[in-house]
Amino acid sequence: MKEEEKINRDINHEAIKEKFKQVWGYDDFRSPQGEIIHTLLAGRDALVILPTGGGKSVCFQLPALLQTGLTLVVSPLVALMENQVNQLKHLGLSGALLHSELSRSEKQRTLQAIEQQKLSLLYLSPETLLSIPVWKIISQPKVKITGIILDEVHCLTQWGTTFRPAYRRLGAVRRSLLKSKPTGTKIAIAAFTATADPQAQQEIIKALELKQPETFLVSPYRSNLSLNIKTVWTPKGRKQKMLQFIQAKQKRSGLVYVRSRQDSQALATWFQSLSYSVAAYHAGLITTERRKIEQDWISGKIQFVICTSAFGMGIDKPDVAFVVHHHAPELLAEYIQEVGRGGRNGQPAEALTLISEPTSLLNPEDKQRSQFFNRKLEQQYRASQQLIKHLPSKGEVAKIKEQFPQGEIALGILHSLGLIIWQDPFHYCKRSSNLAIESLAANQKHHQSQMQQYLKTKQCLWRYLLQAFGFEREAQGFRCGNCGNCRR
After folding, report:
1. d(CA 383, CA 379)
2. What are the pLDDT digits (tens) for 67-95?
3. Is the CB of residue 151 less than 8 Å from the CB of residue 79?
């Protein structure tokens, strides 16, 4: 054990660069890739805010290859995992994934490979990581784990309270694993995302129990990406404005984001009637349909996909020339993730967001959609508030889920308020009986208000985004000269 640790510590910069060139074919790293890689090889925690297309996967894949042991990569979406594992296989590297859509025999083979320590990288969702069969194997003393990577970690603050409550339990993973490992074992945690404002950064550090993390903040600004916001007066005018915008792109690749399955299907049918090669993409499709649409879009068989927010996260398609938000997202973090799909090859790309006129009299759908979102969120908070009164002061997550349909969400809300602690990823303990659900609702409304202000601002759009995500110094006097507001 000590000898292996010494070997890992002695990997010098030239050896790292040599491996990088051998596998990926590049002579040197982009800033701050090299610094992040050294941080992880030294066993230190890291919080990395790196724009979409910034080469984050290399930052944790290369350290995993240079060390002995397994690196766990926690990722929110199957499509994202499959995309990265396929890239690893293409490079001839050792990697596997575990998710609910795999056959029993495939899962068994991967679990055996973990137990026999044949893997360098394992991709899995938070829910799969916290499943009993996986946990039993990774917590064995003989299974060496060198790192835990949390990819797209904005999901913890964006979804983690009400949609993906398993994210709230990830902070207890390292602490629990170390209890079963040999004395002196180190497991580094690195959290990666393209978007996290200062408040979200602090929440991520606290929730994941990061220890004095090295923080790497790279500005989201992309000089080749032109941001535009257009007001439309009627639902028909919204469709026509989008059509004009796409017609001008001359069959180049793109994405159209909507907020519901129904909208994605209706718009896809409309575009198909105009002889466009498009597809509707949403969570209601079966897995094989989703994978086919992803591959058809990447290969160019489909010009653009009309999709809900999950599509495109982590999928590497460099030549996306346009991104349309037929409906504006509720949160800036979602927006900057989604427009970031455009222009990853460095070529000019345009992002267009369509919004209703201020009174909403002729086109009330944006206002209605936002109200629906708020009502749904408030109902979840209120239901959790009632449920929390019935939760025992100590307990097991699995039993709470069986007893109460919304039990896991209630535990996530309690954790985000600091009212419970995780004894391990499966057991909780209440800290206080006071409840401040209102603070969560107020926080959500603040983020929604931030998005509404962005859609109405007259200043440079990139300057607004830089300020919102904590890049105050870069924002001072900034003017991109390329967004719709600057051009006006």
Report:
1. 6
2. 889 999 998 877 778 878 888 888 878 78
3. no
Are the C-beta atoms of residues 412 and 401 closer than 8 Å to each other?
no
Q: Considering only CA atoms, which of 294, 330, 300 is closest in space to residue 312?
A: 294
Q: Supply the DSSP string of 18-71, one letter for each residue.
A: HHHHHHH--SSPPTTHHHHHHHHHTT--EEEE--TTS-HHHHHHHHHHHSSSEE
For CA atoms 122, 123, 124, 130, give the dihedral sign: positive
Q: How far is CA 381 from CA 11, 259, 333, in A?
A: 49, 21, 21
pLDDT of amino acid 411:
87
The values of phi and psi at residue 421, to 5°, are: -120, 155
* Confidence category of residue 440, pLDDT binned at 50, 70, 90: low
For 304-343, b/e burial (b = at least 16 CB within 10 A) is bbbbbbebbbbbebeebbbbbbbbbbbbbbbbbbbbbbbb
Residue 416's closest CA among 47, 216, 240, 169? 169
Structure tokens at 465: 């985004």
